[in-house]
Amino acid sequence: MKLENVPPGSGDSLVLYMDEIPEEGRDYAGEMLPEVLDIEAGELVALNGPLHYSLHASQVSGELLVQGSLGVSITMTCCRCSAPYSTEVEDPACFLDYQVDETTESVDLTEDIREAIILAFPSYPVCSSDCKGLCPQCGANKNTSECNCKPPDEVRWAALDGLGQKKERRS
Ligand SMILES: [Zn+2]
Ligand SMILES: [Zn+2]
């Protein structure tokens, strides 16, 4: 589907028209709908709302420079406890540049913004820095339930203690 003449901020895409950008540059702020972003990345469960952008575009000697910030609220799966949790992802220093000339009418930023926000996703998402994770033996979520499993280290040491005692008994 080709979207034509969609003003910025309408949500379907972010297309900048060169003749709308004055010498001193122009600010663009708005939202992109989650459907448009169509993001599937790693531990991502869902986008909770639109992606917000606040960008400044300027033209400098054959280049269109776009810089600013991106942000979106997402739900991810915690790497430690496997529970879904919501978090804000931000790219405070998004920077895009495009080669342009007199024949360039417009530049579509949609795909690059999509990639920039995916790069800002945490590669090791955890629901909180002190998430206790799952018990490696019984699988219980240690944030919400207690189990009586011994940590693997203790089990191993108990076995070694047993060996030691056998030896002593033999000698
Ligand atoms: Zn967790
Ligand atoms: Zn357990």
What is the compact description of this entry?
With 171 residues, the chain is α+β, with helices and mostly antiparallel strands. It has helices at residues 34-37, 110-119, 152-170, and strands at residues 15-17, 26-32, 44-47, 51-60, 63-77, 84-99, 106-108.
What spatial form do the alpha-carbon principal axes imply? elongated
Poorly predicted tracts of residues: 1-9
- Our count of helices gives 3
- Which ligands does the model contain, each kind named once? zinc ion
If you compute it from the alpha carbons, what radius of gyration comes out, rounded to the nearest whole angstrom? Answer: 26 Å
Taken together, the total number of domains comes to 2
Distance between the termini: 83 Å
Q: What's the order of the H and E elements?
A: EEHEEEEEHH
Q: Give the biggest beta sheet.
A: 5 strands, antiparallel
What portion of residues belong to β-strands? 25-35%
Textual characterization of the structure:
19% of the residues lie in helices and 34% in strands. The chain is α+β, with helices and mostly antiparallel strands. The chain has 2 domains: 1-131, no CATH class; 132-171. The strands form 2 sheets. Strands 2, 3, 4, 5 and 6 form a 5-stranded antiparallel beta sheet that branches. Strand 5 (63-77) and strand 6 (84-99) form a beta hairpin. It is elongated and about 80 Å long. It binds zinc ion (2 copies). One zinc ion binds at residues 78, 80-81, 83, 126-127, 131.
Topology:
Layout: E1 15-17, E2 26-32, H1 34-37, E3 44-47, E4 51-60, E5 63-77, E6 84-99, E7 106-108, H2 110-119, H3 152-170
Antiparallel strand pairs: 1-7, 2-4, 3-5, 4-5, 5-6
The structure holds zinc ion (ZN) (2 copies).
